[in-house]
Amino acid sequence: MSEDGAATTSNKTAETMNNDQQQQQQDKRKHKVIIVGAGMAGLSSANHLAKNGCTDFLILEGRNRVGGRIVSIDMGSQKIELGANWIHGVLGNPMFELAMQHGLISIINIPKPHKVVAATEDGKQVPFQILQEIYEAYVCFLRRCEEYFLCQYLPPPDIHSVGEHINLEVELYLNGVDCQKEKHLRKLIFDCLLKRETCITGCHSMDEIDLLELGSYTELQGGNIVLPSGYSSILKPLCDNLPNENVVLSCPVRRIHWKRKAALRAASSGAAASGASDTILEEDEDDGNESDDSDRTVTEVPIGGDAQGTADEQKATAATKILKTSTANVVVECENGAVYEADHVICTLPLGVLKEQSETLFVPALPQYKIESIDSLLFGTVDKIFLEYDRPFLNATISEIMLLWDGQDGSDGEAPDETQEPDGQWLKDNWYKKIYSFSKVSDTLLLGWISGREAEYMETLSHEIVAERCTEILRQFLKDPFVPKPKRCVCTSWRKQPFSRGSYTAIAVGASQDDIDNIAQPLYSSPHQSKPSVLFAGEHTHANFYSTVHGAYLSGRTAAQILLTPDSPQEIVMESDSSDLSSWIQGIALD
Hints:
The chain is an alpha/beta fold. It has helices at residues 15-25, 40-51, 94-101, 128-151, 162-174, 180-201, 235-240, 260-268, 278-299, 306-325, 351-361, 368-376, 421-430, 452-458, 463-478, 513-520, 549-564, 581-590, and strands spanning 30-36, 57-60, 72-75, 78-81, 87-88, 116-120, 224-225, 247-248, 253-257, 330-334, 339-347, 362-363, 378-380, 382-388, 400-404, 437-442, 445-451, 488-491, 504-506, 534-536.
């Protein structure tokens, strides 16, 4: 089952509702604000607009559900998260405050017993004392990496990534261990923890993560909170504030045409003449060419039958006509032929989608600095493997089993970068060695994590093949040939999903917080505009909370607030109430 197959988990996924929306929107094609994407950033923007009296907005969502990378499904008696898993931190976290406000968190939290065991390929368990010793050393090494950003230290020569720095520390640490066998065992634990870190960070290897920027991510205090009713339960209070007709599902956006007024001025005043500026000439050319191109690309989609082709041609003609005559700041063209006009667009498409479509999605193209920053940042793949069983088989006291794979095969992603035959063969033989552990969700439900190219390869396999391989792994590491086969296996496929194209953002070697700020930078149609035409939101646009739901939420609120800010000073309603204690405390701390 894929993420998009979990439509039943969302409150606004009914097809009848979508049909009603489409009908109601036929007569209303002009809006003050269009929000592209109904993930957390889009919903946050819409809520902030609605709470401040702006209801003339429309959310266009490609999926048949809201929530984006937040999606839960029922598996047995459990609610499992296919995407976002935890509320990361309590103090100053708007997601925690929202969940508390709507009774989604139990204040009385009884911690479950947590016993982690680590086993080698021959089924031998590592003494807990060694596991604890290596874990504490590893955490220390990771904290030192974070200090480079916080304290502006200079790293050792030729050390640019987190992976390189940790491996250097590991090498120095292991030099103090005389016994080769003991040294090897400790190295396996370090390798396993580095694999775990790739799932936390969202990358293929920690060698990809910039050392000087690791500390740019701000961790909120309070630990990770799980919502008993599933993370997607937080979507309901956000959706309750939005009228149904303001959300259009199953409506992917094809093109966002901006700089409309400048282009039209150029066309009407003979911009091709020598008197026109280079900028206006360029905009006019882009706009004119795109009108022709949109006419062509819409009709190129083979959906079947001459009648469908004729319908597509009619849609394309209508789109071209609006594009040529519209005086709106922005015109948004959808895959289904619908065309919407707006004063402003808030684009919340994930970084993975921007990486794939940024050069064709915007007309004229995005400024070069934005395209370079989109390319520079990392948008890795992290997938989950859920295994459901008829009966419990793991020792009741064990909550997680760490898999200490021998050798370098699976530890740091040694496969070639190019997608050539050797790489494909390597992945076929070794993909499963990137699974660093299996943890208990319940007595009859296990969860495995996998990242990077191995995760992408797993997405090409059937769930049956994945389940078989996981059974072999468990039998091997537990030294138990009677480990049962799961009755059900669910694997996520975030890289394959067309509306995510990956999991979350990380800062790659050579990139920085500046790249996040560059992507977040709004676009103006002309120098005289008081408000931008195109704004950007999403976890990839928050310089401190990238990769998190609260980062997406705050970025969406910020984008909406920019549009709400009046030209003259005036009071704005912020989402604050008596329960917002942590923000109040943070305010005191900042002052």
